Amino acid sequence: MPYLKVGYLFQKKYVTYQERKYEVFEFIDYAVGIHFTNRNYNDMCNIISGNYDGINASIINKNANEGEYVFFD
Description:
Elements: E1 3-17, E2 20-37, E3 43-47, E4 56-59, E5 69-72
Parallel strand pairs: 4-5
Antiparallel strand pairs: 1-2, 1-5, 2-3, 3-4
């Protein structure tokens, strides 16, 4: 069942350090979103406020690698 969440929106970036590639998250906005589960059973959030409204972000958990954006509440 969808419901509202308030939290932090991050964008995934990649950094190479000592010839190893690391995934890092850069804070970009405070946001409100509608939480839902997609067809792959991953928790997602459709952002409805701020500068990034209209995008889908993965909820940070062990399966948070689905998209470019992640959401943490």
